[in-house]
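Data deposition worksheet. Section B asks for the primary sequence of the deposited chain exactly as it was used as input, without tags or linkers unless they were present during the calculation. Section C holds the resulting structure in token form. Section D is free text for depositor observations; keep each observation to a single sentence. Incomplete worksheets are returned to the depositor.
Section A, Depositor: J.P.
Section B:
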Amino acid sequence: MKKYLIFYALTVTLLLAGALRRHHAETRRLERNRHALLSQIERYRTKEGEAAASIEALQLRCREFERLRADDAERIRRLGIRLRRVEAAATLAAATGIDVRAPLRDTIVRREFAAVCDSGRVAAAVRFDTVRRFGWRDPWVTVEGWIRGDSVVCRVGSIDTLRQVVHRVPRRFLFLRFGTKAVRQEIVSSNPHTRIVYAECVRFVK
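Section C:
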């Protein structure tokens, strides 16, 4: 009988210890999420001058993600991916702004049109128009346009590469590093004209 009581006591102790551990882990997760929601995006420049941003990641369960990010969850489903197989989901918004000053150049444009002769026949005719052209480019942005009369035609092309890294931030005590204080997402843009205006990272936890 005594053996059963000892076994029962040990079992109950282990179950309580496991429950307390899970409760402590859940409390820490919720605290990290609260801190992540209150924190602002941090913008900075890398040593190479690239625009970068840092944001703390949310840690959500599938059901929480479906409730809090219903549109994103539906978008993931439309891709044919089950939520329980997703490791992380990230959302990013960036804006590219640049002030351009380019000289105007005169350009001759050859135009063909149909003209009616005195005899009533339709013949092809050629006319040359002068339009003003401007252009500017660097390795990331190309701007070109034409001014004709009272109208402007402009074409702007922009190339950017966004690199994202999700990493663990350890706790610190003196010179020691241990555990996990937070999970952060780093985003780096290769286009110096780009400004990262919004970022969000959600990690799925079981």
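Section D:
The first helix runs from residue 2 to 38.
The longest strand covers residues 122-137.
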